[in-house]
Fold this protein.
Amino acid sequence: MTDRERFRPFTGDTEKRIRLANAPLALVLCQVRWPDFNHLQGDLTEVAQAFGSALDEYPLVSRIDEVAYTITPEGVTQAPGERIYQWRSIDDAWHINLSRRFASLYCTSYTSFPDLLARLEQALDVIASKVRIPLIERLGIRYVNRLADPRLVENLAEYVRPEVLGYASLSGETGDAQLVSTANHARYMVDDAALQVRSGLLPADETVDPALTPLQQSSWVLDLDASLERIMPLDVSAVLAEASRLSDIAYDFFKYISTEGFLKEFGEDV
């Protein structure tokens, strides 16, 4: 793809680019969501088979049956939820999920945005041709950064701006109290796009997303979720352009809150 104009709503800096040789990205996810369509009611097996037949790079297939919970005066009852079809790459790094209302592409071994965009373009082409989706109502891109090294977690102020840390920046006066978990949340609007920022400490055996395996030690997470909610035709080029804009929003916020210590720690490569 040709070089494009970068969108920098937080820093205003379109010149400097941050490329980390050892970025702590644990999960990168893109999702498109659409309204209910008549032709997708009922059994999705045939649609899923047609969709999967066009995904040569994702030969491993599985099905996930969600469970829906209903709370009534008599108590909580369970009922079958949506069935999600999933295809995975041989190395299990890349996944594509399909359900009645959405499709998502995510990876746990991120290399570059051009690679992500190329895979998203392929997925959108298949969604348009095999699932026959004419329009979407939501587009989202999410980046989950996770720090697990105790040396880093104990010295977070060296790597990100203190405003992002919340209670994690308070250590107490005596050292007798140990902070186990925190949850900080902010929502920004950038024109018609939203950026949800979540950060905080997670105790051992907890995770922010089912796609991420919980760790056996505590960790600190920075979860950036940029999204656009509006009805738009599933024009692949237009959706890719919007995906790039959303990625820029999340990237620029990351750039805005990172310190020089973070860049040195994770190997700045510009």
